[in-house]
Amino acid sequence: MTDLATRGKAGRMIRQPLVAMTKMFTPRWRGSWFAHLQTWRPYTVWYAGLVGLAGGVLAGQGHAAAWLLAVAWGGPTLGWLAGHYLGDYFDRDLDAVSKPRRPIPSGRLSSAGAVTAGTLCLIGFSGLALAANQRSVVLVAAIGAGIVAYSRFFKARGLAGNVTRGALTSMAFVFGSMTVSPWPPLEVIAFAPAFWAHDTASNLIGTLRDVDGDRACGYHTMPVRRGVAATVRAAAALYAVSLLNVAVVGSLLAQEAARPGVFAFLFLATGMGLADFMLLFRFSPQSPPLLALHAHEVLVLERLVLTGSLLALGMGLTTTVALLAPVLLLSAVTQALMRTKHEGTDTPRRAL
């Protein structure tokens, strides 16, 4: 009897972990993991890491330790994930009206779970900052405060929200530089306005997708208050400022050998942006969400290419292409597979 009991106990010890692993593949567990994956927005999350890495390679001038560059990538990525979790938490009532299939309003991700995950991401971000440069913790705190301020207060208040959102990316860029340098070098400070202007413009285009829902929920975004045409003009002006900043500062800082790579990526990004804004200026106010979604999808890929200009300045054309090509491919594929469902629209993509 004792032998049988021992064998029975051993069998349970083996079976229990296997049963737990099996549960991960049940519909309930698949739904939970997919809800987190949707919240991450895999088609956008690579951008934050590239921005931080660009700051790191520019500050390091080819001499930074690999682990510090990994922090420059990983810290902003965790901050980006925190922004999505906390942003979705603060937008849960808005999304319940305009995007009910998103993880929180659909019930697949709890509000408490989103806050916990976002907080853990910020804690991880802080830990990486402490490991690389204690001074950069101040930036992490500013980014965390900016995430909450944007989602809780400024998002519903027009241009103030868009400017706050753009500032978060420029701070991530500066953070990347401070992983390898005690203070952000001059060349990093000179490029920071490009990210501020670009992501303010991108965020403005994002608001065009949600005009009806924002208006219904009392969000006074720029297209709600000023209209679609004025919003597109403002975004185009900011986008031009971003490109001009990269062109001028890149011309001043790039050595002869680096200039072809810098301007190759800049010209490609400019072409993508021009095509996108030509589409936006043909916008029909009667059907903005669908076209705005497509326009923002282009900017999601374009900003990776624009960041490649700064990466090429710091790490060369060949290395940048090797890094950027799979990131672009993965972003394009995940965006095509996931974004329409996450945005909550059933309109066929071919209708674009």
Topology readout:
Layout: H1 2-23, H2 27-40, H3 42-60, H4 66-90, H5 92-98, H6 111-132, H7 137-154, H8 159-178, H9 186-207, H10 211-216, H11 222-226, H12 228-253, H13 259-281, H14 288-315, H15 317-343
Helix pairs in contact: 3-4, 3-8, 3-14, 3-15, 4-6, 4-7, 4-8, 6-7, 7-8, 8-9, 9-12, 9-14, 12-13, 12-14, 13-14, 14-15
Please, could you describe this protein's structure?
It is a single chain. By secondary structure, the chain is an all-alpha fold. The chain has one domain (43-342): Orthogonal Bundle (Farnesyl Diphosphate Synthase), CATH 1.10.600. The protein has 15 helices and no strands. The protein is globular, with a radius of gyration of 22 Å.
In short:
The chain is an all-alpha fold. It has 15 helices and no strands.
Any idea what the shape is? globular
The H-and-E topology, N to C, reads as: HHHHHHHHHHHHHHH
Write down the domain tally: 1
By helix and strand content, what is the structural category?
Answer: mainly alpha
Count of extended strands: 0
The proportion of residues in beta strands is under 5%
CATH C-level = Mainly Alpha
Number of helical segments with 4 or more residues: 15
Average of pLDDT: 88
